[in-house]
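Human
Can I borrow your eye for a moment on a structure tokenisation matter? Give me a protein, with the fold worked out from its sequence. Write it directly below this note and I will take it from there.

Assistant
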Amino acid sequence: MAAGTEERIYDNDFKDFEKYHCRDIRTYPKFRKNHVPAPFLPMSRKEMDRLGWDSCDIIIVTGDAYIDHPSFCTSIVGRYLESFGFRVGVISQPDWHSKEAFTVLGRPNLFFGVNAGNMDSMINHYTADRKIRTDDAYTPGNVAGKRPDRAVTVYTQRIREAFKDIPVVIGGIEASLRRLAHYDYWSDTVKNSVLPDSKADILIFGNGERPLAEIAMRLTSGESVKDIKDVRGTAVMVKKALPGWVGIDSTAVDTPGYIEPEPNPYCVMCDTDGSKSSEQPAGAANAGLSGDADGPESGLIMKISNGRDEAVKKVSLDKKLHENEYILLPSAQTVKQDKKLYAHVRRIFIRECNPECARALVQQHGERFVWVNPPTFPLSSAELDYVYALPFRRQPHPSYKGMEIPAFEMIKNSVSIMRGCFGGCSFCSIVAHEGKRIQSRSEESILNELREISEKTPGFTGVISDLGGPSANMYGLGCTDARMRSLCRKPSCLYPTPCRFLNKDHGRLIQLYRDARALPFIKKILIASGVRIDLALFDVNYIKELVTHHVGGYLKIAPEHMAPEVLELMLKPDEKVYYDFKKLFDRYCNEAGKKQYIIPYFMSSHPGSTLSSMIHLAVWLKRNDFKVDQVQNFYPTPMSGASAMYYTGFNPYRPITGSTEPDVFVAKGDVARRRQKAILRYHDPLNFETVREALIELNMPECIGRGPNALVPPFDPLTEGRPSVRTGGKRVGGARDGGRTSSGQKRAHGDRPKNADFGGRKGASAGRGSNGSGSRTGGAASSFNGRPSGRGGNGRPQGKNR
């Protein structure tokens, strides 16, 4: 399309059904035309008998309690499949030590569906410091231990023991983020895709409605699950390339192309001269999988030899060479042995998340290949409305007899208004799971759900705890240029600055807030989802509306850090954005006559965060009169860009070649990570010695004392006792930190100044390590002028994590 004639769009709703041969989910036929929705999806044979069922068509096995509410993945998937006339049963939190618990509903007619729940089972079980949690918010009575580690794999294996020939489809956040070989923080190793490990037939990643409907309908038509290989949003095991698909090598697309006259839509933090490659596109006919699964891999992956790349032709990225095109990645065994190739795979993965231009990804595991189809297309507003209009009871299953389930209590009066996030923070996995494109419900659908809350929720007081989603203020927003959207491979629409093609008008969201407040049964609507402040600054009317009507005393925001070198690796804006937002926040608070406060959340131990970075942040906190109440240590979860940095020391947002060296500092090791965490709470007497040792190392004596600019006081034996502060018998930080760096990693700025010695105490070596990131789970919760604050992050379970 010629410059100046591109299609401008202001409604980001998905309408390209015909263009992409995509079926509207509402048009599928009913499997049983007269099927009546169950009061609750049955969890026992007694319930099945009361419904008059002799068997279930589909059985969902989940690691969560079954709560019939649209914020929980099992409920949405179950009610959705039920809407097509399927009999759907639920096995919730089964005893995984034997197969008997998986046979309570009998043999399903079609397939088992397996998910770990709204939360990854490993994150559910362990803190960021790998300590075992003592509670589980998704279990009745908040009891821990009701699901196994790596629940998807364990559940699927037990099902295979009980029913060898029944198809098993896995999905949810745990399976979605393990669809390729991935770094596993808990074992500190690279593990295979969950698909071959679990022995499931199909893995669904991302939001599952569209692929689930297609799979279910194809099975009902008599098609074998072994023949269902080409559904978007799924991964399957293959022995050779699917018919009609053409392959290219992953290194052929690792250098971004150039689009003229628009700016390169693929490049963020990358060094390119903008010149179009003079080389011809690589011939793809023989570049992919051979007919023999155990064929040689030579020439199909990037070879690193003596610091040089093996010559490989580059492929222009302005469009795919073929409609059905796949990228052959380095094998699972290879990335386990070579961190550079692991980072290379993560870089390719990050760039292949846009369903309009993404290629299939293929990775060898043993004698077979994991075939990851391109992501599914987003749901239209009408389709999303259809899903949220299903007959949810908005209550836990009666079998729990009124036991409190904390996750339900937290979100029972909240409404998810959209899915997706175009922020692309490196430590977050939302883009890898849901994608960048925002899927917004219609205003009427949201208002109808508010009416349902008032009618179905016992004890409803008129207060809505949240209208939001992955982000509070992306509702209705998206790319305004159809061509650029169809080509874009950038990981973020907001970093380093918001894209010029991005619609930033919050008018539709403002009107939604006003319409919701006008409902007669509504007393107050709070916004608990995180506000993306760099986006909000483009529409001050939104900030005014938010501050005037929807802040309950404290507004949580997540700048995450204040050191520029860390923010760059997080793909987060600089501190000026915070000050600009705070200025408007204070202005509108004064105009409204309200005393309200900003609670910023910060993260320690993120890749790139050195001792110097943390002291920089501590000084910023002191200067701005914040005292951190809770601290989130960076949590490396599968598939995020920051987790790749943590494991490898390479930045996957920059080109990676044979001569690339690891240059990302990482704070690996429990002691090094605790040290960074302690510095954020510099005001806690238990952390005084740790902070003093860091300041001595960095030659910053001016920050030790009792003056207004000091972080910690001088050592006082009368109040601190012995010089070495101990917690649980272990040293919190200091010279014996035990931190380490990845091999080949460069010394970061600010580490261990020479001859740093004053006050009778010697400098100590800096703790080192790597730390990667996963889904956003919170941050350091700061209290303003000593005011208390709650835990950071979104904090609300969402049905989006399917």
The first helix runs from residue 45 to 51. The CA atoms of residues 250 and 329 lie 5 Å apart. The two ends are 37 Å apart (CA to CA).
